[in-house]
């Protein structure tokens, strides 16, 4: 497959959401956080993801992957949160954008309801995530955080994930920065991410009175760059 990776534009958002909804349909985290499937609203979920991608296009690093011969179809997407050096406080623009996203999410919840989202579990996950990131993110240069990467089920195992990953990993290597992700599946994802140089460093447990899931936290060290000098 001849693949092309580009930065996501607003016109790509719908196709990107198709990849998320299809790739995560049976995902353990998705099934845990939307545990009452009879209440799951794909419409509300699409609105929620649209708000998130609109934010990500401006403030994150969002990519889409297509096959060159069929550029209308998005095969896979990734959203990364860029690193923040410990010495650089969050910019006002970034801070305000997070609040703007939050207000839009509140408005969405008022209009659409929760669409089956288990709010207690959402906050359990958020708290566990904040704790784990506080423990693991010890590098003052910050981490490229792969917030989400998805490939349409029919296109999985054909190099789309690698094409998406490689661009950001190359930037991270050039800058000498670490990358981080949380996978909701041990198999086969941990083995897939190991192929990209990530290592499993922690299992994050989110426990709702005995109904628990594990998320697999992985870190990738930068690969030192060759100077190109031959002695
Ligand atoms: C995880 C995911 C993003 C990987 O993307 P992909 O396009 O399927 O992966 P690729 O085809 O690019 O394969 C990447 C590498 O993993 C290897 N790989 C692929 N599937 C594998 C499997 N089932 N077991 C072991 N290794 C596998 C490939 O051989 C390749 O290595 P190589 O390039 O050295 O040969 C994709 O499968 C996906 O969206 N899964 C469902 C949603 C999901 O779990 N997302 C991640 C949440 S954290």
Helices and strands in order, then pairings?
Elements: E1 3-7, H1 13-23, H2 28-33, H3 42-59, E2 61-67, E3 70-81, H4 92-112, H5 119-136, E4 143-151, H6 160-175, E5 178-183, H7 189-195, E6 198-208, E7 211-220
Parallel strand pairs: 4-5
Antiparallel strand pairs: 1-2, 2-3, 3-4, 5-7, 6-7
The structure holds coenzyme A (COA).
Residues 23-24, 149-151, 156-162, 183-185, 188-189, 191-192, 195 line the site of coenzyme A.
Say which molecules are bound, naming each kind only once: coenzyme A
Q: What would the CATH topology be?
A: Aminopeptidase
| Strand arrangement, major sheet | 1-2-3-4-5-7-6
What percentage of the residues does DSSP assign to strands (E)? 25-35%
Q: Provide the helix percentage.
A: 40-55%
CATH superfamily assignment?
Gcn5-related N-acetyltransferase (GNAT)
Low-confidence stretches: none
Brief rundown of the structure:
This protein is an alpha+beta fold and 231 residues long. The chain has helices at 13-23, 28-33, 42-59, 92-112, 119-136, 160-175, 189-195, and strands at 3-7, 61-67, 70-81, 143-151, 178-183, 198-208, 211-220.
């Amino acid at each position: 497959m001849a693949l092309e990776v580009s930065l996501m534009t607003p016109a790509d958002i719908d196709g990107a959401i198709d990849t998320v909804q299809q790739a995560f349909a049976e995902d353990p985290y998705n099934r845990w956080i939307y545990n009452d499937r009879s209440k799951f609203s794909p419409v509300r979920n699409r609105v929620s993801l649209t708000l998130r991608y609109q934010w990500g296009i401006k403030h994150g690093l969002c990519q889409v992957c297509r096959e060159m011969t069929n550029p209308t179809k998005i095969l896979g997407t990734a959203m990364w949160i860029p690193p923040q050096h410990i010495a650089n406080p969050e910019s006002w623009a970034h801070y305000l954008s997070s609040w703007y996203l939050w207000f839009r999410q509140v408005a969405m919840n008022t209009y659409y309801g929760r669409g089956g989202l288990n709010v207690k579990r959402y906050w359990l996950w958020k708290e566990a995530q904040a704790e784990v990131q506080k423990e693991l993110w010890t590098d003052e240069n910050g981490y490229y955080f792969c917030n989400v990467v998805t490939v349409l089920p029919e296109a999985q195992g054909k190099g789309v994930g690698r094409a998406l990953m490689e661009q950001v990993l190359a930037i991270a290597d050039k800058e000498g920065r670490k990358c981080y992700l949380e996978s909701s599946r041990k198999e086969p994802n941990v083995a897939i991410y190991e192929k990209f140089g990530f290592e499993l460093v922690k299992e994050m447990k989110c426990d709702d009175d005995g109904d628990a899931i594990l998320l697999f936290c992985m870190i990738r060290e930068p690969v030192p760059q060759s100077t190109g000098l031959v002695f």
